[in-house]
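Progress narrative, work stream C.
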Amino acid sequence: MKTQKARLRALAIFVVSSLLFAGESLAKFAPDLGRETFHTAHFRVHYPPHYRALAEAFGDRLENSYVILRRELGWEPSTKTEVVLRGDTDVPNGAAEVFPYNRLVLNAVAPEPWGFFSESDDWIGTLALHELTHVMANDETSGFFSFQRSFMGSAAKINPYQPAWLVEGLAVYEETTKTTRGRGRSVWNDMVVRTAMTNGLFDPGPGNLRISLDRLNDGIRPWPGAHAAYLYGYLLTEEMASIGGPDAPARISLANSGTLPFFIEGVARETIGRGYPDLWDSTVKKLRPLVEADVAKIDREPRTPMSTITHVGRRTRGIAASDRDHIYFIRDSERDGVGLSVIDRGGIRNLTDWRWDGGSRLRRTYDGKYLMYSRYVPYREHSLYSDVFLYEIATGREIQLTSGARAIDPEPTNNFAWDEKADLIETGTFFYVKNLDDGNQAIARVYPSGRRLREDLIYAGKDFARLGAPAYHLGRGEWIAFSEQPRGAGEHLRVLNIDNPSENFALSEENSLPGERARDVMTTPEWDTNGSLLYVGSVGGVFNLNRIREPFSTKPTTNRITNVMSGVLQPTRPFAGAPLYALVYSPFGWNLGIVEPDSFYPAGPRVTNLEKKMGVSASSFPASESVPPASREEADYSVFPALWPKYWAPDLRKVTDGWTLGVQTSSYDAWENHRYRLYGGRDTRAPFAIWDLNYQYDGFNPTLELSVRRENRYFATYAESNRIDTDSARVYMPAGWDSLVTLGFTRTASEYFSDTETSGGFELGWIFDRMRTFDDSIDSTGERGLRGRAGLTGYFVGPARFSAFESRIDLRVPSPLPRHFFRLGANYAAANNEKLSAFYFVGGGEETIAGESDYLLRGYPQGTVYGRKILTSNFEYVFPVLDVFRGIGTLPAYFESTRLKLFFDAGSAEYVGNDLRSFHRWPTGAGAHVLSDFNFFYRVPVTVAFGFDYGFTRDLGGESRFVVGLFSRVK
């Protein structure tokens, strides 16, 4: 029995490794960035030259973190980790990869002033520690996988495929226990847990909003969405440490690296004597009385009356009120995406639809004609920067004021005016927070100079401090207030004279005002009509509104003016006759609410933060100013350490009437200038080998691609294999953010029933993609938008001289019903070669239910339609049938939902049903597919499908066919 189990386990290990080895690299970097490199003891750090100081700060923090994590995790990577510091985006983030090699990509921009990551004491150190935890823990291998790694390389690393809550929970645990803040000490995360517990989301019962261990395996669809893995994974990791000791999470990580992911339950029991369901129950049991005690403390004072007026949830923000009848805000909803919306007498209306997020606070200009805000905009076709926009309320026109300004949270003055006729700023000034090209931030003053905008930096944050939300004082127009968080401190407010920027002072809640180094959060300031300063503070462990009276006096005073259980944020700029609007937190995210503040609430006792709830140990991480500099060695950038093959992985696939079996490897250099993929294998239906060799170069804005490929073009009707050899060289040139133009040369050796022809020539192509995915879609089938491609090839190599044209369009639109979608696809191709064997197109049914094949005609065998001209069309209607979103404990099979697809296909070609028809016969087909979405092995989204295809034109090969499919939804 033991021998049989061992064999089954070894087979399972091999199969899972084969399925899971593939990984995607990050987005392409801006090709025009200069690049420099230095080496430290354990890292190769690559960065744009103007980010040198920030790169050195990251290098110091990484080396310091390496020493700590090597001791904590008991593991040390065998090679240096590639580190890339990118400065071509304003999206604050970082990413860690261990496949095909260890790499960190760190965005050189401070986190947002409010959010899940906003309360770190040193964002550089916290980001470095968190991402390096991923690299070192996910690089671990032990047991059988150590042996497998000896011949498969990095494809044998199994820890990345643990549940996301286990991977992210460990990283948040390290960032919390090794710093003085971290998300475990975050008032933000404490708010999320307290509100969820108070609203019964931890209670057992039906409903997709419930928070349970099994739902963490796939991610909770409602708020807080993907962050649930970080927050609740951290709570579980802390519970591991409280039961098994501080090193228990590290011991579990190492043990998991030698075990298949779906054996994690046994590892936990062997390591700490508890399984994860028990850990979850004890975590919830520990939290419940502490949350109840927190609420009792809050309720010692009357709750502030509030009423919610939106229900889009998630991340509503940027309120701007013009009067009681028009309230504008930035929505972020599951159904409607991101953009501007308004509440008026007709309800909620969406005004704009943005492809990219990044919406800031929303401001109404003082003349009442425009809204001002910032959002992400593609810049030079490869960078994603934040720019300033106006929205003209009367016409609905959106006006872009800046381009590539890297501007956040714009704030107009009272004399700002836009000249509609000249289409430029007529008078006035506005301010914003600017991301500088060295990782720092500054407050910028912007004003017109002719037809151009001139920008002056009036305050620069020091040492990579984070700035946010400048607010203009209408009564004393020479002053603005903004939030500031220096590294190693909390967040305080700074008040600055815009006419004399050296005249500025800080207001802090460390002990009493004024001051600079605060532990508590003071953010999103707003001037009241009476000259006092409103802000959101975290004193007491809850986000409440506060007021500073007489902020310009020598002894300003502060008091809390709301008492809420969850949290409030972003108060509006008050207008005459309008109530005070603010963001109000609920278990489902942030919504717009009307707040009726009291004149005074006492500070009250501090509620228990997560660090106290879970018993977080004291920090052993040095403050930012005390980290010793790492030794650095200047070096030239080299691609070879990263490009050398790091893995060899099997590729086994079931195809019509046979199988394909091959092996492949791939890699890319740290800057992703070079990338390649090598594949070689056999098709059981063919007497020849198949291969695919591909290389791309991205060192300049166009992408160069070289490809050598041999494939089997299989005719199921005749059970005949035909060899197609294709050699190509292409250049992909961006034509805007949504499209590419391709130029290239291709050579094809085509076999058609033992008749072989060689042809080749130049090709011109165009690819357009404006498809967007919304959270309420079921998978990529629920995308909305348009995708298309077209290609023209002129063949002049070989005996034939001809040209060929191919095109495809894919249109997807939602129906009025939530999560119901229509899809219309069409494929057309034509070639003018004289001999059919020189070049032809093949259409017909699908090998599996994937829905992505060219020239798809379901209900018919492959090869039913073919020839030098072909046209197929597909209409689909997709709608949800069953929502489950549940699993069983930590079993690696999570059932998400089931949907039904109804379709109708039609097509024709030069040859239909093996006879020359020349589009005079149009076989049609229809059917229904039931598609159920699962998540297997925690990280592999899979659709299990079955259905019925029916070809109506029986004399042309139409058949009744029961079809099945098992395919990844990541296409």
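Work stream C, second folded protein:
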Amino acid sequence: MSEGITENKETKPKKPKKRGLIIGLIALLMVAAGAVFIGLNFKSIETAFRKRTMSPEEYYKHVELQAIRNAYAPAMERYETLREGLTVTEEKQSASKFQIELGDELQELFRKFGINDFKGVDTIGLELTAGQSNHAMTQSFLAKLLLNEVPVISGDALLDFEEDLMFLGIPELSDMYLFSTLADAMGYDAESTKELLQVLPALAEQLPDRKVTEKLLERYTELILSEIDNIRDYSETLEIEDVKQNCTRYSYSLDVEQIRDTAVLILEELAEDEEFEEYFIGVVSALEEVDAFFLDAEDAYDSFIEAIEEKIVEIESLDDEDEYERIKVNVFVDDDGKVIARDYQMKGEFQFFSGVTREKEDFGFSMHLVTDDPIFKIEGNGEQKSDEVSGEFALDCMDYLVAKGSFKAGSDNKKPEENRSYKVILTPDGKLSELIEEWNEDSYFELKEPKLIFEAETIGEEFRSELSFKNDGEVFVGISYTTVPEEVKEPVYPPEKKRITAETEEEMLRWVATLDAAAFEENLIAQNVPELWAEGLADIVREEQYDEAEWLFANKDYETAQVLFHALGDYNNADDFETTCRAMVLYEAEKYEEALELLEVTEPTNYYAEFCRMDCYLQKAEKLFAEENYAEALEYYKLYINGEPEHLPQNGMECYYRLGLAAYENKKYAEAYELFSQIQSYKDAETYMSRSDYEGALTKAPFGRLYAPDYEAFTGVVTLPENYLEIPLPTVKENYYQSYMCEYAYTQMCYYIGNENAWEEMQLDPDLGVHFSDAQAEEMSGGIYPTEVSYQAFMRKKCEEYYYIPKLKEYLLANGSVAQLDKESIRRNVVKARTEMELMASLMNKHPEYYVTLLGFKNMDEFLADAEEKAREDQMFYHILYGIAKKEGLSLSEEEFTAYAEEFACSHRITLEEFLNLNDRAVLEQAFLIESAMDYLIDNASFTEEK
């Protein structure tokens, strides 16, 4: 028996062991399956557990904290990348390209509006390549302008912070490079920048890492959540765009006091946060190494704490009666504990809602901002399959920017975090469509299925995007942007012989002179760039050279300016300017004849050439005057003053005087008058009136005109009116006296005395007229009329003369005659009239033929005929007055002669002695006798009251 048992032990027990193994395996599989099930559903189990074990308030704050963590997670990733990147040890280079595509319909639209600048241009692009090496101490940039994908012009820059240098070049225009220190060129403090780059690694070490930063953010987030109370929960079904989702709505309100208390709590906690203080001081301590920052860590932190304390006081003082005194908050949370929607409502009918509902693969979304009326709203639905999202939406912005659209986003399944693509299509709808159709009512182009399409794609570090407006499937206008990494290249420094320093303006101009606009234009045309653009771009360069050349000319660097003008060829009369530069070089070398010859041969038309020509005339005249060659000097002065009529040089004034004096002494009175009148007529003549010789010329001029050529001919046969004392002369009204006195006094004070404040200093009274102080009267009369009373009497007499002489002249000419007139005298007076007219025309920069039309004459012949008639009338008038003086036996006592002489001396602003010395006694007696005849008629003719 015992053997059987033994046998059994040896042979039978195998079956029970097998069953035990199977049962063990089954049990193991069940445990494993349970573990997988629990693992897969742990989140849901955890959520359900928390929801059942926590109060609604605790659970909401837990959910909100998780949501906020998820929200700032991407920001934390970027922060960590930035912190690690502060070490700037890597070398990198990338290229970015911005391009505009001009569709056929857009180009046709341009042509309809008369814009042909874009003819033949399909794309316009700007490409920027940027790189850094040597721990960012060296940075390079290359910017290119592209037309139809062809690079046309570029700017090449290299910044070296280690050596404090900058290089700048435009390869298509010149092989020379400008170089300078960064401080001079761009205002950079290169040493401070260098120090900053060197301390960045130390700064990165002082900045808290991601975990610490997240912990700090969570702490302050929990502080904010701790102030929220009275949270209520409601089970609801949220429906957005026909997609429903079960959720719990958590609702609470915040008032101004809660918001204020929360803000104060955060600031107080921040002021006492020792961990934050440690990091703050650490970061600032790292920056202390940069001298330009002038930082002290402890002082900076103290200032920060002071700012927090001031802010706390400011917040605590806010008025409780705020416009938004309560904010109602609704947060929608799904069964998995995720926030799917938020709703904020404030006093004043302000609401903001944002949410997404999901049901299997479908989802709906909505976002809107509402005050009294919706001002922004976007809503739609879609579906998500694997890593692809697509759907449709409607956009409404203030009821105008209305559009329907679709979107699609996806990623490469192999590397979804690196490779993504996006596409959004907008189709105008509602009022936006109406506005487009209204604008296009003139049928600029056929509007058919317009769409705005945005596409973007990231492939690793590459990024591409495009925004295009399409019409009937064709691109109307498109804008694209791409950025791609490139292989790092070592910076290339220009060789010494290719460098021009930019330290001075002159050196920079040397570089500008090397720009070859003509070769640049030819090269563009050879690359099939439209001629309009080729010429326009080249002209930009030419214009810069032209401006610089003008600046050089203005600063009298004629030789450098000549180089620039020569490079410009015939652009904008640059060849004229080049000739002018050569002439100015000769002028500075006092080679006036050679300069004038050059200007006369080439005849440049620019205003600088005219200035040069005028200066040559002036210097030549001055030289001749110094040699006492007055006649020839005067010819050059005349050439000068024709170009500069408002100015007459001092030697020119003296030249006129000396020649006029010689003519006067030789009794060539007409010629003397013409010369003297030049001095009298010039705008700046009063500048020289302190010199007695000029004043003498001014005195001689009117006498030479009126009497000197004619007094010997006053012996002709004169027929006088029968009773020349019975001339019906109206009385002069008092208001006429006052008006004349005002005008005469004002003229004297302004012109003779040079008093700019004359009008303010004259005492005006509506009833009594103008009054002066005795000092003013004496000043205006040159001391001859020392009191106001005597000066008023003088002005009253002048007023009567001004009023009666035209009436006397009219009566005497109508009722008397002269048997014989001096034709030569009349001719000379006509010549004088023409001389004066031409002089005035040149003073006003007018051509004589045009100026006579301004005087009211049809042409020069009509003007000369009028001048001849006036000369005849003047001669007859003086003959008749002389005849009356003889018939009445008028004569002048010495006292009367002196009185007349004083009056004339006063009017010419010189003393009596000077007046008598400057004029011939016989001429004066003849003139004063005619004056006495006029006085006799005025004093003795009959008067009638003026009606």
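The longest strand covers residues 243-255. No further action is required on this item.
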